[in-house]
Amino acid sequence: MSTLCSDQAILTLGGNEYKFPIVEGSEAERGIDISDLRAKTGHITLDKGYGNTGSCESAITYIDGEKGILRYRGIPIEQFAMGPTFTDVAWLLINGRLPTTAEYDEFSADLTRYANLDESMRHQFEGFPRVAPPMAILSAMINALSCFHPELHELEDESQFRHAAARLISKIRTIAAYAFRHSRGLPNIYPDPALRYVPNFMHMMFSQPYKQYICPQLVRDALNLILILHADHEQNCSTSTVRMVGSSGANLFASCAAGVCALWGPLHGGANVEVLTMLEQIHQGNITPEEYVKQAKSKDSKVRLMGFGHRVYKNFDPRAKMLGAIAEKLLPQLSAGDPLLEIARRLEEIALSDPYFIERQLYPNVDFYSGILLRAIGIPTNMFTVIFAIGRLPGWIAHWWEQNQTQANRIARPRQIYVGETHRDFVLRDNRR
Ligand code: ACO
């Protein structure tokens, strides 16, 4: 809970003075509580894109965008490079603390137990055309889980919630892999209970009925870290979507399916695909890095330097720093080196020394290097944003539950400043001009 500060904000409006409480979070972030602004003054706030609006109090993730700080449940993101598994991080985000060995083993066993999809659900993949984007299938199939688990629409207690969360975290991987196999016309590969979270996903993606894919340790470590670095990012577009849908009382599966749709957009999770397209364009010689940056700066073009800029970070995104360092280290070991990494480095160098990017505080974000790494470990481009969704799922679940458990939860329902026609009368069709 935030604490109430001793000082207050004073708003002068129409000759009257109104006082509003100021609240402070555990990292000394302050906010003016305007919950009764409209009741007191008849006015609302207008904050396009919600850049100044706190929609909730949350204890899950802390970001200081000016200093480049990101912490999950208090733990700095950099410390997750030192060996925890994605399973550890998922448990941490959802439950608020690191699991004991017994809790970890139980959660891990649940992830293994729940990996299979109902057979009739498995057949539904055949109804999608080959060209269906895997993000569309992912969202549809996560929503379809609501049909297969009506008993989990209303979660009675924490234990039932944990099982619902484990089901979803386990099954998203199977759904993702089947969506990919479908796009290639390949037979589905059942999950292997002997394999842990990441290698099991890679097995379902790349094994053949006649040949098992063995996930190299390097690939496993890289994907594990990529998932961890995407696991939560407080009130971003997709998480806010999950919370908004959940605020109406919609179940966990339906809310997370909506999160997938929000993540898909090129200004959000879809940017990792756009980064690759941009690097490929430059690599194919269609445009030089210098010319691309020039276009990105031009007011007349719609081009943006993809993977650059962030609503919250006005400094280096710590996740981009970590991914850039891993790409540098792993790429020579995973492949003969990727020319796209060189191009990315060059773009970064040009942008970081250009006044346009310096003045606007535009730095590389998480998507700038993630695509290059995903490519190096063999993930096809149409699956990049799907991987992001697998990573982000524990965050969505943690936020959905946090909100569900908040006594004061109100349905999310912003207001607007209406700018349309004022009162006018309906005209019968024959009398219209
Ligand atoms: N390239 C060129 N100019 C940019 C870029 C960019 N990547 N990002 C922002 N700008 C410019 C804008 O044109 C604007 O300039 P102006 O003040 O002259 O009008 C200024 O910087 C502020 O930009 P906004 O769009 O107002 O910033 P906002 O906070 O709304 O958007 C966003 C943030 C969407 C991430 C933006 O920086 C962007 O489009 N980046 C590229 C897409 C991308 O990488 N998205 C992934 C974000 S991370 C994630 O979601 C996981």
Automatic annotation (TrEMBL):
Source organism (scientific name): Candidatus Thiodictyon syntrophicum
A GO CC term assigned to this protein in UniProt: cytoplasm
Protein's name according to its UniProt entry: Citrate synthase
Protein's pathway: Carbohydrate metabolism; tricarboxylic acid cycle; isocitrate from oxaloacetate: step 1/2
Active site: H310, D367
GO MF: citrate synthase activity
CDD domains found in the cross-reference section: EcCS_like
Source organism, top-level taxon: Bacteria
Pfam families named in the record: Citrate_synt
Similarity-based family: Belongs to the citrate synthase family.
NAD found in the keyword field: no
InterPro entries in the cross-refs: Citrate_synth-like_lrg_a-sub (IPR016142), Citrate_synth-like_sm_a-sub (IPR016143), Citrate_synthase (IPR002020), Citrate_synthase_AS (IPR019810), Citrate_synthase_bac-typ (IPR024176), Citrate_synthase_sf (IPR036969), Citrate_synthase_typ-I (IPR010953)
